[in-house]
Design brief:
Helices cover about 45% and strands about 25% of the residues. The protein contains nine helices and seven strands, in the order αααβαβαβαβαβααββ. The longest helix is centred in the last third of the chain and has 15 residues, at about 175-190.
Length: about 220
Amino acid sequence: MWSISTDFMESLMAPPDPVLEAVLRSADEAGLPRIYLSPLQARMLQVLAGVIGARRILEIGTLAGYSGIHLARALPDDGKLITLEIDDKHADVAQANFECAGVAGKVELRRGPALESLQAMDGQLPEPFDMVFIDADKVNNANYLRWAAEHCRSGALIVIDNVVRGGQVATGSDEDPAVAGTRAALRLAAGDERLQATVLQVVGRKGFDGLCFIRVR
């Protein structure tokens, strides 16, 4: 039943978009992993970015640019998305997709390990971020969250993807780096007085997973 419901909801809320369909084809043709957001999840990020009036967004983990295009579309004309990608092949595909989508003027794609890119931005940001989307190597989720909390304005939104992982974050072993890294981020979100967080568990095209939504106090 959930698959029928997903099809119905996508047909209404995330109908076919030639640009986004081309993004997914380019990812498949380049052999990129199919780990991008579902259409409904990507649309949710876009809606949330609009709700908070985001002008400056940070994305950690670009892949083919699917979620980045959704976020860039929510930005005003003077808005900016900084997106970080470690893999040059992924970055090449994403940059081409940003250009085809007509959002390249709002997007700055930085290549290299995300932690190094974040460290390079310390002291260089003209103003704090309004929104951060974390969807990269899970082992560093807590490090990414800690950096984001220190570089976001009050009232900003931070979203972390893949925080349920089929239930493994609750039941799996800390010997799994993805599980341990995600647990560390969730504990930080729950225990840091600067942050107010919740988790939305979802079942859909990506199986059983979830997103963590964090407001910076």
